[in-house]
Amino acid sequence: MIHKERGLGISILLFLFFFIGSLVWAEENSRAYRFLGKIYQKQGKYQEAIAIYQKAIEEFPEEGSKFRYLIGKTYEEAKDFPQALSAFSQLIKSYPESEEAPRAQLEIARIHGYRLGDYEKASDEYQRLIDNYPQSRQVAGALLGIGECYEYKREYKKALAKYQEIIERYPGSGVDYDAGLKVDAITKGDDYKGKPLRLYTLEYRLWKEGGYEDSIEVCQELISRYPKAYLASSVQYYIGYIYQFELEDYEQAIKEYQKVLKEYPKCHRASFAQYRIGECYKHLERHDLAEEAFKKVLEEYPATLPARWVKWRQ
């Protein structure tokens, strides 16, 4: 906590230097507003962040769509979902041709689904994006969202159809990778009369809703009850992933990833777990161990995606 507070103090000093400099050297510098808003968000001062973004809209109306999007995301981060929905809707109404409009529509759908649990409304909003912005990059994400809504309602055949559509229509988009994981889980995770699959769906929903501890508990329940299930290795990996990326507990994340390597050494998640261990050591500034972990990826999993990631880092 001390390190975080010190880091925020340094960030504020840097902002003041940057902001004053921007006033002296250039009257119009929206980056200063964006920078300060992000600092307030990190501190949990959401109203201050929103006030900064609103001021930026007055100063830089040509960038209004960008700052309105940040306002919506700030309300969402603050868990004020009605205000977030209102902000995103206002963005779409005021800037219908902007790049942020389909992004705002995607956020509206996700709030209804992930945050409010209204999957019918979420599906309608995802479809609205597809209908109104058919050429946008967010269409693949909207299809994924519709598939997830079906999945949460345990309508797995309909979900599978949507995921397969993404793989066929949007190869290389990144979303196709997520869809592929979903297809794998549904088609191969139906052992034990589908009970692990239902737990898998529950933990994923809780994770997306921000219930990280609850998601971990469901993962642990799946592993405890069905240790030999096809999805057991995946949820063990997800435990590590949540500790790493959501809770930022890198020591615990390493322990959870190591369980993947120990209990499921031949699973398709093993190479990813080994790579993530290297990332965690890097965050902990234990660089020798990080390089050792990355080296193992190349040696033990040379033909995998994580091996390509390691090569890109070099």
Features:
disordered N terminus, 0% strand, 17 helices, mainly alpha, 3 domains, Serine Threonine Protein Phosphatase 5, Tetratricopeptide repeat, single chain, 314 residues
SSE inventory with pairings:
Elements lengths: L1 H24 L4 H13 L3 H14 L4 H14 L3 H14 L5 H16 L3 H14 L6 H14 L3 H14 L5 H14 L6 H14 L3 H14 L6 H15 L3 H14 L6 H14 L3 H14 L4 H9 L1
Helix pairs in contact: 1-2, 2-3, 3-4, 4-5, 4-6, 5-6, 6-7, 6-8, 7-8, 8-9, 9-10, 11-12, 12-13, 13-14, 13-15, 14-15, 15-16, 16-17
Question: Can you describe what's shown?
Answer:
This protein is mainly alpha-helical and 314 residues long. The chain has 3 domains: 58 residues, Serine Threonine Protein Phosphatase 5, Tetratricopeptide repeat (Alpha Horseshoe), CATH 1.25.40; 72 residues, Alpha Horseshoe (Serine Threonine Protein Phosphatase 5, Tetratricopeptide repeat); 117 residues, Tetratricopeptide repeat domain (Serine Threonine Protein Phosphatase 5, Tetratricopeptide repeat, Alpha Horseshoe). Helices cover 78% and strands 0% of the residues. The protein contains 17 helices and no strands. α3 runs antiparallel to α4, α8 packs antiparallel against α9 and α13 packs parallel to α15. It starts with a helix and ends with a helix.
Globally, the shape reads: globular
* The CATH homologous superfamily of the largest domain: Tetratricopeptide repeat domain
- Oligomerization: single chain
**Architecture (CATH level 2) name of the largest domain:** Alpha Horseshoe
The termini sit apart by 32 Å
How does the helix and strand content classify structurally? mainly alpha
* Number of helices, counting only DSSP H or I runs of 4 residues or more: 17
Total tally of structural domains: 3
